[in-house]
Amino acid sequence: MAITLDRAIGQRQQGWVNSVLSSQTFWVLIAVILACLFLSVATDTFATPKNLYNITRNFTFVAIIALGMTLVIITGGIDLSVGSVLCLCSMVLAVVMNAGYSIEVGIAASVGTALVIGGFNGVMIAYLGFPPFVITLGMLSIARSLAMVASNNTVVFQFGPDHDMLLALGGGAWFFGIANPVIYMIVLALLTGFVLRWTKFGRYVFAIGGNEHAATLTGVPVRRIKVTVYMISALSAGVAGIIQTGWLGAVTTNIGAGMELQVIAAAVIGGANLAGGVGTASGALIGAALIEVIRNSLGLLGINAFWQGTFIGGATVLAVLFDRIRSFRQSE
Amino acid sequence: MAVLELANVSKHFGAIQAVNDVSFSLQAGEVVGLMGDNGAGKSTLVKMIAGNFRPSHGTMRMNGSDLVMHRPVEARQHGIEIVYQDLALCDNLTAAANVFLGRELRRGVGPLRILDYKSMYRRAGEIFKELKSETRPRDLVKQMSGGQRQAVAIARTMLSEAKIVLMDEPTAAISVRQVAEVLNLIRHLRDRGIAVVLISHRMPDVFDVADRVIVMRRGRKVADKPIAASSPEEVTGLITGAIEQV
């Protein structure tokens, strides 16, 4: 009896290979790789250094925000304000630098704006019990309007004394010809992955998404964690905004419009569950990559750009469909 | 000396008198069945011991010193552990993660402390072994049977040196075989010298495992006697009011 009990307790539920094979993220990664292979063969233009450089850089902005969004989604929440927050943070950076302040001041103001907005969202949700959908929907409208107020709805493309430094920060390629935004994305993804797996904070994020009531009863500081998560989400939008400003070299009040939906799609394609409790940092990246590869390939294959939405929407539904099929099998 | 002593404890919510002048004591290594119909005041009584509510009147003493709690987390610091009716488990986490929820083990120094998976798996495994439950620390709770889920919830109470374990309807929604498992888990706790309060509607379970039965009706304690000196018929009568008081 003692031996069998020991063995039963010591056993693992499933092997390493099995758990990889059953993860949505893995299959989406396979889809991305297959799509890339297909495009390399089917077109002369896909596998060129210039196109690959473009792809990697283009999807970083969505990917960076998807990292923050993934945390929010794991807790069972949603943040619809990220596109507008990106716009507002870019505009704050642009306006401050345009007024002659240094890049440090500009970035500090921009990051500060993001944290204040995220903190506001979080406090309203965690302490006042607002549904995340409602409060971040409100913020979607507020943040974009504030960006218009800050810039008087003009395009800002002069960034004062540190103009060149900002452009290098976002548009340069300091290491081995890899676009800077890609480097930031990888660092942030590693950081997010580490936090989710190895810290108490990460564990609590999952616990809140799994059973918020249980988390509260066992002494998890649920409200504090929730506020932090919304601050991180807004911060990720702010950081993406700063980098994008450097890359584009100009800020308008319509950047990031509709981006929240792309970001949520990326997180969901990558395996985050909108019901909460499930999600990974790598999934956010891979989901964002799939979206960008689809966009890019449609262009290269000469398919009308109007079809983009159909393909991206289809990919979202398809990714979740696989997950549904798997859970139907499990419940049988 | 009694582990826990309640003296003339009352609790009212506005005009509603939920618990009225209840006194009893709990000894170490004793299983007490707390019975009563819905609305008899059992939950309110237990929630006071668990730190959710403060008594309106009366005192609670633990090992001879006054027990005043403002938040449920404080109960745990006093060695009072609660197994909630819904078990308060996170389905998306592993058994070990649930056992250690809110009390994670970490290794490293200063701010660079990371979760110590290895120690948590090992310790959780030891507890499951002690409980003689075939529960694997690495399994997700989502995929577990009712008995295993109970074992996870009970394992939580064994992390620290608990003195009192309050169990709210642990056998309400599980199969017959699993009920036997849970009753065994309760005996394990008792053998460790822990006082167990078992809130239950199920007469057979209480008569199977408890040493003493306390019956509540309409906020008052109407019986408090050894199981051996009572019978299911008497307890039923006390719960419904057919027997006024003993």
TrEMBL record, chain A:
Keywords: Cell inner membrane, Cell membrane, Membrane, Plasmid, Transmembrane, Transmembrane helix, Transport. Pfam families: BPD_transp_2 (PF02653). One of its GO terms (molecular function) is transmembrane transporter activity. Coiled coil: none annotated. It is found in: Cell membrane. GO terms for cellular component: plasma membrane. InterPro entries: ABC_transp_permease (IPR001851). It is a multi-pass membrane protein. PANTHER family: ABC TRANSPORTER PERMEASE PROTEIN YPHD-RELATED, ABC TRANSPORTER PERMEASE PROTEIN YPHD-RELATED-RELATED. This is Ribose transport system permease RbsC. The gene is rbsC.
From TrEMBL, chain B:
It comes from Sinorhizobium americanum. Keywords: ATP-binding, Nucleotide-binding, Plasmid. The keyword ATP-binding applies. GO terms for molecular function: ATP binding; ATP hydrolysis activity. It comes from the Bacteria. Signal peptide: none annotated. CDD domains: ABC_Carb_Monos_I (cd03216). This is Monosaccharide ABC transporter ATP-binding protein (CUT2 family). SUPFAM superfamilies: P-loop containing nucleoside triphosphate hydrolases (SSF52540). Belongs to the ABC transporter superfamily. Pfam families: ABC_tran. InterPro entries: AAA+_ATPase (IPR003593), ABC_carbohydrate_import_ATPase (IPR050107), ABC_transporter-like_ATP-bd (IPR003439), ABC_transporter-like_CS (IPR017871), P-loop_NTPase (IPR027417). Residues 4-243 form the ABC transporter domain. Transmembrane segments: none annotated.
